[in-house]
Amino acid sequence: MGRLIARRLLTAVPTLLAIIILSFILMRLAPGGPFDGERPLAPEVRAALEAAYGLDKSLPEQVWMYLTRLAQGDFGPSMVYRDFTVSGLVAEALPVSLLIGGCALVLASLLGISAGLWAALRAGKWQDEVLMLAATLLTALPTFVTGPLLALIFGLWLGLFPVSGQNDGWDWLVLPVVALALPVTGAVAKLARAGLAGELGSDHIRAARARGIAPLTILRRHALRPALVPVASYLGPAAAALLTGAVVIETVFGLPGLGRYFVQGALNRDYPLVLGVVTLYAALIILFNLFADLIYGWLDPRMREG
Amino acid sequence: MSEGYVVRDLGVRIGDRAIVDDISFSLAPGEIVALAGASGAGKSMSAMTPFGLSAGVASGSAMLDGIELVGMPERDLSRIRAEKVGFVFQQPLTALTPHRTVGQHLQEAAMQAGGVKPDKAAMVAMLESVGLSRPEERLVQYPHRLSGGERQRVLIAAALAHGPRYLVADEPVSALDAALRGEIMALLVRLCRERGMAMLLVSHDLAGIEHHADRLLLLEAGKVAEAGPAQQIATAPATDYGGRLMAATPRLSEPLHQLPDTGETLLEAETIHVHFPKPGWRRGRIDAVVDASLSVAEGETLALVGGSGSGKSTLGRAIAGLGPMAAGSVRWQGTAMPPRNRRSSEHRRLIQPVFQDPLASLDPRWSVADIILEPVKWLVPHEYRAERAADLLEEVGLPRDFAGRKPSSLSGGQAQRVAIARALAANPAMLLLDEATSALDPLVADGVVALFDRLQRARGLSLLFITHDLALARRTAHRIAVMEAGRIVECAPREELFANPQAEATRRLIAASG
């Protein structure tokens, strides 16, 4: 297991490098730049700004400069929010995204897995059909529909939860977390159901039944772990996406999370901000895929051997 | 209370379909009764359904020690299974839970009827009694670390852990390597005799059970065709069905049939090596075939025999140009064949393959005619194609109007005949038969073997016959090459091989097939 972790962290370095360099180049290929406003800047001002941020150097030089700074943990200054560094912006926005995403992740896993298992145990019966229809609907509905809908019903009509911004309590969290968790819940439920339904028909379950083991014990002891393998493989990348901020939810509920900075940064051509968020996002994806692999190993010992 | 297991007028239905119809038999304490028959005859269904372990619904009566099992609620049936019966299944590879160790399985099995938790010494003793080597080490291992035979031994140990009076074994050796089958079957029988257990044995392999079972029931289409002492049925079956089943089962003791005459040497393979890199990130390589040489003459059948993993399929594929070859040469009528990526369509025409799983080797979306004619699509003018496909179907013993069918509407035997017709379409000089009959039912397999014999005589075909079944090789092949661990350890005409086996591996195979 130690070897698996070491190997994965080693292969993560070239992967990250490739992602950063590619994003750097793609960013520059997009038309426009950080200093294009409605009023064109005076040429000498523009030249001074570009010199200050190193934009006058050749592209390979700029990549090299960025990478050397990154290696020292410096994500550079934001080119649009002039008084802030990228690290400062991320430090401010990331906790909000982590909180919402983390809660949504826990909620989606708990709800999705329980619903999926329950449906699998009633495979073919009406409860199964209803749950799976609901799961399909949840996966199909985009958050820009469910978000405003939840805000309308529970915020404006019923007045149960605030619909915008943060406050000192916890109730501001409810609607964004639920809206963010719903599609993931649907997907997890479908995967858990398929996993367990497939597992229940397998030979080793029949062998356990032949031993006269009680149905609940069979479920807990023999079926559950292999049934959750597909859920684990989905939740790895999904966790990374949830935790790094959801643009739509943050916009709908007026929350200062990382997702909004990312989109704003891309629109403003705020090169360092976009690259900083991309790097963070890629690192999290790699990390969570590693977690998913470690969980696989626990769920099924065959996967401990590469 | 009457001891024993008594089945009267047992019926099994799945939905509206009757699978088993009015079967009656009894199993006295300590007795071994075998259910045999062609596939689809209802053997497993008859054995498993009264215990609630199949998809079927039972009717009639099945009394275990005076307790009626048919119609019993699942909760009570589950207790009966836990207390009185041990089960051994066909698939040792999948019947153990992957994330639980061997020790955990044994512990659960020993406690299933409310027994005390076994200590390590007790579990080691269980594994020793089923002949598993290094038992202490095994206890903490996960199932995937064990081979198929080792897993079946663990499953047998688990089935016996709670001291049942009855054992139900559903094809316990058919998924195992040929060399192991006799050994595991003998182990089951010895354990039954030692412990006074009764065993209900399901098997399609008559040659493998006739010496072990006390009584034998031959099932045909859900009914008992013939029942009686196993030895008597095996030697002198009373019914036509019994006779056909017995004749279809190759035995080493049967008289040798005359095989067609052979001609000049056609194919010579010399010092063939095949190796593969080890899977995953591990260094090194696996030597699948080492220094293998063989020759096949015109109209001759050469059998490649060996256990699983002995390299027989890999060697066959290398010769036919279907798989990699690291070193060695293949000559056809004295001329060297180029390596596989430079073989022309003419080279490929000469050797055509037929594989083990007939349905997996046919594209389910294609019609039978398209499948058969794919190799020669551009060579046969459009107006002659239907005619050609029908001729080939007729040659392999299928109705001419099968051309429009899809593979999903074919039985296993029919699908294999279509695969043979496809191989013949290119007008080959040699067929590579890779376990071409081992996925088939004995009666169907016998028909396909007869077809090969007919084709060989009519077309002068050479056959490279890869099989794990030594008795089948003896029945069909002029010469037999025995493979072990990637090497050909012995190659001799069949009479000579059995009269005077040279290699240790040959002697072991002969002993296991007897």
Description:
The complex is a heterodimer of chains A (306) and B (514). With 306 residues, chain A is mainly α. Chain A has a domain at 91-259: MetI-like (MetI-like fold, Orthogonal Bundle). Helix content of chain A is 75%, strand content 0%. Chain A is built from 13 helices and no strands. Chain A has helices at 2-29, 43-53, 59-71, 86-121, 126-140, 143-157, 171-200, 203-210, 215-227, 229-243, 247-252, 258-267, 271-299. With 514 residues, chain B is α/β, with parallel strands linked by helices. Chain B has 2 domains: 5-248, P-loop containing nucleotide triphosphate hydrolases (Rossmann fold, 3-Layer(aba) Sandwich); 265-356 and 430-513, Rossmann fold (3-Layer(aba) Sandwich). Chain B has 19 helices and 20 strands. In chain B, strands 6-7-8-3-9-10 form a 6-stranded mixed beta sheet. The longest helix of chain B is centred in the middle third of the chain and has 18 residues, at 178-195. Chain B is globular and about 70 Å long. The interface between A and B is medium-sized, with 23 and 30 residues.
